[in-house]
Amino acid sequence: MEIIESVNEDFWWKVAEACPHATFYHTPLWHHLAVRADSSRQDSTFGAVCENGTRVVFPLLQERSVLQKYVSTFAGCYGGLIADGPLPENEIQSLYEEVFSRSGKKFKFISNPLFDEEPTPEISDGELEHDFTHVLELDRDLDTIISEYSRGHRSSLKKGRRQGVSVRPATSLDEYERYYDAYQASLKRWGEDPSSGYPWALFEEAHSISQSHPNAITLWLAWVDDAVASGALMFSWNQHVSYWHGAAHEEYFDYRPNNVLHTDIIEASINEGYAYYDFNPSGGHDGVAQFKSRFGAKKWPVKRRTYTRSLLETMFG
Predict the structure, then answer these.
(1) Are 168 and 236 part of one and the same domain?
(2) What is the band of 315 on the pLDDT scale with cuts at 50, 70, 90?
(3) Among 99, 134, 152, residue whose Cα is nearest residue 258
(4) Are residues 107 and 162 in the same domain?
(5) d(C-alpha 117, C-alpha 35), whole Å
(6) Is the pLDDT of residue 312 over 70?
(7) Tell me: the pLDDT tens digits for 225-279?
């Protein structure tokens, strides 16, 4: 097997396009956002060509601190290997060993719910955390999906539409700034310091990428008259649409903007031929998880594995 350090983006794009379980989080775009969000983070993705000709990419980010940490991948989103063909088990293990040969103290891998046969490195000292995401399969028409909403969600959808909530993709940087204002208001409502959240630079970069890759990033906004009531930053790749970030202004809650927002995005996803609408893990927030489940979305397992090396291993391994 040939290891390719500092894999070039052309190689990476070709593997991401050919791999059926690759998500947006396995593309170079996600790493562009990660680095823009925090300048102390850098891309450490590498590639490989197996003996059978299969090309592999291992998305990996290095978080620089006193003792370096590697993650696959950023913000608790899906990582792990992607490949354009079959992978022999011995070469899978070799790829993980390549990661562990690096001078990091901690390694974190988040599994991909679309990849049932996710490879697991044979390393004894790992910690395993079980999590889940909510996924809505788009193999039915919109009316059928809405019929599977909870009674409360169907009622909220009707109320929002009756009160004139409208939904459309953001196009201008100004609209992204208005969404960021809603995010800042949401952080205060959640009792968090606004400075502790994602920086404006990440959303500014998302807008830039949405102009060059409009099929990969869309900021959808729910409007009440001329005001942004809520929004959802969505990522799309292959058959997968992912709800990564949401925010809202509390004064518009009674209009039920999020029920209209998600329903209209689901409709657009069906029309564009996507197979999965992924609400993403809920960070342990039960109320958020319940809100997602009431759209008829089902729990899909996500595993988070953390491996920690001793100081001596870090220095001399």
Answers:
(1) yes
(2) very low
(3) 152
(4) no
(5) 29
(6) no
(7) 999 999 999 999 999 999 999 999 999 999 999 999 999 999 999 999 999 999 9
Contacts of residue 315, Cβ cutoff 8 Å, sequence gap at least 6:
none
Pick from 55, 53, 35, 56: nearest CA to 44: 35
Going along 39-176, which residue ranges are E strands? 41-43, 46-49, 55-58, 61-63, 69-72, 82-83, 106-110, 126-137, 166-169
* CA 195 vs CA 77, 163, 188, 232: distances in Å: 22, 34, 10, 20
Asked if residue 185 lies in contact with residue 250, where contact means CB atoms within 8 angstroms, the answer is: yes
Write out the two tokens for 157: 């959808």
Are residues 250 and 180 located together in one domain of the fold?
yes
Residues 116 and 170 in one domain: no
Domain range spanning residue 153?
140-274
Instruction: State the CB neighbour count (10 A cutoff) for residue 316.
Output: 8
Cα distance from N-terminal residue to C-terminal residue, the chain = 22
Least confident of 88-97, 121-130, 203-212: 121-130
pLDDT in tens, 110-159: 999 998 666 666 655 678 899 999 999 999 999 999 999 999 999 999 99
Tokens of 83: 């490949």
As for how many domains the chain has, the answer is 2
According to DSSP, the residues that pair with 246 across neighbouring strands are: 232
Which CATH number fits the domain that encloses residue 79? 3.40.630.30
- The pLDDT of residue 313 is above 70: no
